[in-house]
Design brief:
With 252 residues, this protein is an alpha/beta fold. The chain has helices at residues 2-17, 19-31, 33-55, 83-89, 110-116, 127-142, 171-176, 219-223, 225-251; strands at residues 58-62, 74-77, 96-101, 120-122, 146-149, 180-186, 203-208. Helix 1 packs antiparallel against helix 3 and helix 2 runs antiparallel to helix 3 (33-55).
C-alpha cells in the first residue's frame, strides 16, 4: 500500500501545484503553439517518470528505433492497464494525443493537461460524436501531432488476452495517410490491476513494431486491417510474456 499512497500523493500534489503552470502554458499557447506543445509534453513526462519510479517499475523497451521521427503516426496498442498510457507517453518523440473515453473529462485539472496534450475524448455511446472525434484525430495527425489509440475500446479487464479490435480505430491512419506503429505491452496489468489496490514492483516489456503503410498492403489485408494489426501485437505479446516468465523464474 505504501507505493499506492506515494503515487496518489504525488499525482495529487502535481495536479494542484501545477495549476500556475497551466496558466503559463495557456499564455504561451496564445503566442507560440509549438513551444507550448513541447513544454507541456516535457512537464507531464517529468511527472509520469516520477510515477514510474515511485511504482518501482522496470521497463524493457524493444524496437523503439521503429518509431518514425520525421512524421506523425497512429500508435495502436493493446490495453490492460492504466500504466499503458504512463509508460508509453514518456517515450513519444513528438507531441502525441491519446484517445480517451469521454468520462475522463470529469476529472478536474487532469482534463486540462489532457487538452494541452491534444488528447481526444471519445463518446462511445454516440456514433455521430465518435465520428467527429476521429475526424479531429485526422486533422491533428495531418498537422504533425501523433495520436495513440487502443482499438479494444476500453481497458481489458477480462480473462481474455485481447478484446476485438474495432475497425473504426484505424480510420485516423487511413484518412491522414499516416503510418501505423503497433505497440505491444506485456505485464503492465501486474503493476496494479491484478492485485488492487496495491502497486507492486514489476518488470514489463514494451515493443514497438515496424511502421505499417496502409497503402502498401494488399487489398485483402486492408479489408481486415484490424485483424492484421492485432495479429502483429498478439505475436509480440505472447513472446514477451514468455520472456517475462523466464526472467521471473531466473530471479527466483
Amino acid at each position: 500500500m505504501i507505493r499506492l499512497i506515494l503515487v496518489l500523493l504525488f499525482v495529487f500534489l502535481f495536479l494542484v501545484l501545477s495549476t500556475p503552470l497551466m496558466l503559463i502554458e495557456w499564455i504561451i499557447g496564445k503566442f507560440n503553439q509549438p513551444l507550448k506543445d513541447r513544454s507541456s509534453l516535457a512537464i507531464v513526462n517529468w511527472a509520469f517518470r516520477w510515477v514510474i519510479r515511485l511504482s518501482g517499475t522496470k521497463v524493457i523497451v524493444k524496437g523503439e528505433e521503429n518509431v518514425p521521427l520525421d512524421t506523425a503516426v497512429l500508435y495502436v496498442g493493446n490495453h490492460r492497464s492504466y500504466y499503458d498510457i504512463i509508460l508509453t507517453y514518456v517515450r513519444v518523440p513528438r507531441p502525441t494525443g491519446y484517445v480517451a473515453k469521454r468520462e475522463m473529462l470529469r476529472y478536474p485539472l487532469l482534463n486540462v493537461w489532457m487538452y494541452f496534450l491534444h488528447c481526444l475524448f471519445l463518446d462511445r455511446s454516440d456514433l455521430k460524436k465518435g465520428l467527429k472525434t476521429i475526424l479531429e484525430g485526422v486533422e491533428k495527425v495531418k498537422s504533425g501531432i501523433s495520436i495513440c489509440i487502443f482499438p479494444e475500446g476500453t481497458r481489458n479487464g477480462t480473462d481474455q488476452d485481447f478484446l476485438p479490435f474495432h475497425e473504426g480505430s484505424f480510420k485516423i491512419a487511413e484518412k491522414a495517410k499516416a503510418p501505423i506503429v503497433p505497440i505491444t505491452m506485456a505485464g503492465t496489468n501486474t503493476i496494479f490491476e491484478d492485485h488492487l489496490p496495491r502497486i507492486q514492483k514489476q518488470t514489463v516489456i514494451i515493443e514497438y513494431g515496424k511502421p505499417i503503410d496502409i497503402q502498401a498492403l494488399d487489398k485483402d489485408t486492408r479489408k481486415n486491417l484490424s485483424g492484421y494489426v492485432q495479429s502483429i501485437i498478439a505475436e509480440a505479446y505472447y513472446r514477451n510474456l514468455k520472456e517475462l516468465e523466464s526472467l521471473k523464474a531466473t530471479a527466483h
